[in-house]
Fold these 2 entries.
Entry 1:
Amino acid sequence: MFLGLIIKIYPNNNQKKIIDKNLEGSRYVYNYFLKYSRDNKIYTVDSWKKELFNLVANNNKDISGCNYLSLIKTLDTLEVAYKNYFESHTNPPKYKKENDTISFKIQNSKKEIMVLSNKIYIPILDGLKCRYTKNLIGKRILSITIKKRVNNYYEASILYEDMICFLPKTYRKVGIDLGARKIITTSDGEKFSIVDELEKRDDRIVLECKKLSSKIKGSKNWLKQREIVKKCYIHRANYVKDMINKITTYLVKKYDVIFMEDLSIKKILKDQECRPIRRKIIENSLNLVTETLDYKCKMYGKKLIKIDRFFPSTQICSQCGFRHDPFDSEVFECPVCKSILDRDVNAAINIYNYGLRKNRI
């Protein structure tokens, strides 16, 4: 199975120059062939390669010293962007600006890339320091993509091949409810939240943004402060991804079958009635939760079963089945059987029961 791993790298001054040169060369090639394709109405890599070869042969100063295979991979990225535009009707490709995040890819075709305990050995970057926890020694490395997020903050995305063993069976099933209050609530009564912890990081971001607004735009201090603000946002996003990975891994290890609603996050965010909770939905990254659960269940041999999104799980009493809308209350009080339950736990139990009935597991 092919897996990806994003790690932070620590290049020295000489390595930074090489990385920045390749990044700028990748951006130049992307923008050059975006204009070239628009002017000549040519959208195939084979035609672009001939023009790229001419640029290299003429010693173009913007790409001199760059890895040639990485420039070809940039053309592949542009072709994929055009395919998505023509076939899926997405937004057309745009020019890469200086402040945009750019990257370049190095293919391990000749098996020259090696990843040891704390260093990456690449033909153009020998002995690149890094930090990671997984054991990659002896694994087949397919490619490495190096990206510069902000100034002095570099990341490497490693694509490698590894054998994945299915997790042992626990013979347990659970229903989960995704929400704005708690990111995940299970039918067993467990709750997971990240919004409360994010408030501390949001306070830091607000403080740094105030400092940025007090400086003269375009000055050296303004540029330094802008890099600090960017790093705060990066640390915040990394925290969200880390917590979602830990929560989903915990659920996949504990349960064999997971029932959840087939939610359309895009439609929920567009719904005018959901505007008051839109920020919490985005903070909880519900779309990332569903995607992470989906691929982890497939990878570890577990089942993720999605039920009908129009099933009124929050309006049905899990004890007697009476339908009652609790509106925005955090507690579900049934007027028939007089049971009092947490609203999210009640919804998770209904999802669990509905999933068992429909799938007969």
Entry 2:
Amino acid sequence: MGAIGIHHTEVDDAAFDGPANEARLKLDQSASYYRRAFAWADPEGNPETKAGYKFIHHFVDSEGDIGAASSRGCSSGIGVLNGGRGGTTIPESDREGVWRHLAAHLRDADMEPPELKSLRKVELHTAVDQRGHEVRAFETRMNLEDGKLRGYAAVFEVWSELLGGFFFQFRETIRRGAFSDSLARGDDVRALWQHDPNWVLGRTKNETLALLEDTHGLHSIIDPPDTQWARDAVFSIRRGDVDQMSFAFSVDAEEDEEWEFETEDGIARRTVKRAHLYDVSPVTYPAFIQTSISVRSIWVPDNRHLEMPPTMPPIGMPPTEANSVSDGELARLANLRRRLDLADAQFRTRR
């Protein structure tokens, strides 16, 4: 079902409390009743319970009758679509439909709706951890419900920001179903605190970590242990000090990824079609310091794309008048190149 179609009603600009109005809705009503109050319906949820809906924006009286749309509720809903208040977990493909629904109410009130911002670039950083696994961090939000941590460790079908390092940069997207084989095999995936294997929050093997692929991404539900360090971690998440997630993975074969180099903007693009999942993790910072020196542990099929940029002289060659680099910078680049070649050799041996 997803986004609920546009309808036209009266619009009121009075103060609006979404949770309070939702609480006044009648229980176990028909889908048509709930659709009058919300802008999105979960296609996999029960349409006859309000738990299957999101983006309430109508006033509900004490008798449970649904009234006018709230201009403030509509504006607030668009703010959430644009990433406010932690954003939303509805599928990317439904965002525009929900925006159209809310925007229609605002136009009925002769108000210009806020534009729908693009959230296509949500992946923040890339890194390689000490185990040689690729690590990605997304600007997704976790919430605490029934003592369990819930959030998306990965988001599908969105192009990343620029990834990589000094010598090679690219954009990346994770295809829907990329983790399906890993989950179907029953890979023993851990939930770690800050990607540290000394701090295990959950594990699929003993059902303290549940992972589910939906149309939006890789949803994780973590049941943390009742230990002091875990309680401290949960407290930090509850306060909002830590509110991002990331995941560690590897691509096992060349056919599990697809590279495109001839792009309009000249930036290479990588599509991860199938990935081996190792862990998911709440993180404070979405990157590791190894990023700039470990990028070549990602397999790139054409070494010509790793050539030095034309604005820099070849390593070991004196700079020209038109292209001068200090001795210190030249030494730093030479050291980076040696470390890059070493990482490349180690990775190819490991593959």
